Amino acid sequence: MLNISNLKNIISWILYIIIAIIIALLIRYFFVTPTVVKNVSMKPTLIENNRLILNRAFRTFHKEPQRFQIVTFEAPSNYNTPNYEMDINDVVAKYNNEPKGIFRKFIYYVLEINKVSYIKRVIGLPGEHLKIYDGKVYINDELLTEDYLANNIYTTSGNGIYTDVIIPDGYVFVMGDNRPQSSDSRKFGCIPIEKIESSVSFRFWPLNVFGKVH
């Protein structure tokens, strides 16, 4: 049988474990978290199985995104919508599947169960006119220099319809560096800044490319 002393020890350990889990969740949600690259849309900058540290302070302190910054964001609900169902005049991504209720929101946003996130590069900022033409990107009619792209990469429509847009306030236009194999704002529209979860801080694996990601 358990005596009072043993019972107190067990309860203490349970409380320690609960507190440790809560602290870990708070750090993960508000400050930093590791992640693994799972697709090819950011090649050659990021490749599959790269391990990254994400800076969640971007969301916590409501920082404004910067051009060329690599960010993660909640995948929009219209990421796979056929072009004939898209509205060329409605240039913002849609989020129609948000969970209802505190518990479901906790599961989705904090534990991130069944939540899909994308990692892309910020290309266009609020209020700017972005146009894709002749394999290049233009911001307010000025050619955008993109040194991070591979030499043989050209920017086309990417099977999307949003190639000439005025980016609304509170939104950004994002694209993957591997333009032919990236589902991004060309396809689903501009991303609300409030849906950006984090910025990429640095890569810690593999060791031969350890360091800040540009």
Q: Estimate the mean pLDDT confidence.
A: 94
CATH class assignment of the largest domain: Mainly Beta
Euclidean distance between termini CA atoms = 60 Å
Tally of individual domains: 2
Proper CATH architecture of the largest domain: Ribbon
Give the SSE string.
HEEHEHEEEEEEHEEE
Query: Which sheet architecture does the biggest sheet show?
Result: 8 strands, antiparallel
CATH superfamily of the largest domain: Umud Fragment, subunit A
Percent of residues in beta strands: 25-35%
- CATH topology grouping of the largest domain: Umud Fragment, subunit A
Helical fraction equals: 10-25%
Number of strands: 12
**Which structural class do the helices and strands define?**
alpha+beta
Shape assignment: elongated
Low-confidence stretches: none
In DSSP terms, counting alpha (H) and pi (I) runs of 4 or more, how many helices? 4
Nearest-angstrom radius of gyration? Answer: 21 Å
Oligomer: single chain
Describe the structure.
The structure is a single chain. Helix content is 21%, strand content 26%. It starts with a helix and ends with a strand. It is elongated. The protein folds into 2 domains: 1-30; 33-201, Umud Fragment, subunit A (Ribbon). Strand 5 (129-133) and strand 6 (136-139) form a beta hairpin. The protein has helices at 4-30, 57-60, 102-110, 185-188; strands at 32-36, 51-55, 70-74, 117-124, 129-133, 136-139, 142-143, 164-166, 171-175, 191-192, 196-205, 211-212. With 214 residues, it is of the alpha+beta class.
